[in-house]
Amino acid sequence: MHNLAELPAPVWRDDLADEYAALAARLEPLVPCLEIPLHLPWIDAINKLKKQRGAVIMAHSYQTPEIFHGVADVTGDSLGLAKAAAGCDADLIVVCGVHFMAESAKILAPEKTVLIPDLEAGCSLASSITAADVRALKAQHPGVPVVSYANTSAAVKAESDAICTSANAVQVVEAMDSPRVIFLPDEFLGRYIARQTDVEIILWHGRCEVHEKFTAREVRHVREQFGSKVVAHPECSPEVLAEADFVGSTTAMGKWLAREKPARVAMVTECSMADNLKSQFPQTEFIKPCNLCPHMQRITLQNIYAALRDLKHAIEIPADVIAGARRALDRMLAVGRRETV
């Protein structure tokens, strides 16, 4: 067997065209066609290497199509990936997403090796608040429970009473059984929650650098120019959400498309999500008033291959932080179980 660290970079072979014909056909409307022959050798090498390693590759919905469709075994939102990490049989997991997502997988599966292809794949929301900030807020508002968005570091999760996603944020906030709740760190998501509950929301001023760029004027232009429906993520500003036909999480957007089957839709969220949904909804024309997440774009086929080859960029979290973060995540999961009873 070759020393994996010494394996050469993948190169094109003529047999790849036949072996990956179905994938190439799926990618053709999603990426520039000239890129497909460049992607296929890396996709082939990763798929062979992950089988040799016994690894599972998980990709967030914001990953580029060649990753999302080409090498991922599991796809979904950040919580879905973390749950999948806990439930899968593999001892080695590669998380194609940003750092807090890989941390969440490690929190729910601490006994497994979790790799991230690029340690610098961060998140403006996660970096907007620290564990020390949370402790200061709790001292300023004694007894007020803290609900933190999943887009936070493990250290911030460990200081929180519960975690939420954009899909279940209102339910988790109300499950705290408190007239006031500190909500961290997304200001726009917090304002969206506040409009749907009688609980007083104490906000932090973090924002997603992708979603905050969208404007209401852009949304109106898309609707007027293309006659499209508009769906928006709740991390967008209140002015943008007021213009949308539907507001929802990453997963909820996909369910809305399946239910409504619009002829045209503008997805006011990260660009790659629309790319990845095109093959699932061929009857819908996707108008793209979108922004790319620079952190998600740091994950590439090349650094996925390198992570698998060298087993590098393993996520390490202190045991006490894992324990605190796990308690907060379990509180959220208990809310979900209560609502399905």
Explained architecture:
The protein is an alpha/beta fold. It folds into three domains: 4-123 and 296-310, NadA-like (Rossmann fold); 126-208 and 318-340, Rossmann fold; 211-287, Rossmann fold (3-Layer(aba) Sandwich), CATH 3.40.50.10800. Helices cover 45% and strands 14% of the residues. It is built from 16 helices and twelve strands. The chain has a four-stranded parallel beta sheet with strand order 2-1-3-4, sandwiched between helices. Helix 5 runs parallel beside helix 6 (99-108). It starts with 14 loop residues before the first helix and ends with a helix. The model has no long low-confidence stretch (mean pLDDT 92).
Number of H- or I-type helical stretches: 16
- Largest sheet at a glance? 4 strands, parallel
CATH architecture of the largest domain: 3-Layer(aba) Sandwich
Query: How large a portion of the residues is in β-strands, by DSSP E?
Result: 5-15%
Q: Which CATH first-tier class of the largest domain would you pick?
A: Alpha Beta
CATH topology of the largest domain: Rossmann fold
Q: Given the helix and strand composition, which structural class is it?
A: alpha/beta
The ordered string of helix (H) and strand (E) elements is HHHEHEHEHEHEHEHEHEHEHEHEHEHH
What average pLDDT do the residues reach? 92
> Whole-number radius of gyration?
21 Å
Number of strands: 12
> What topology, given as strand order, has the largest sheet?
2-1-3-4
Q: How far is the N terminus from the C terminus?
A: 52 Å
Helix content: 40-55%
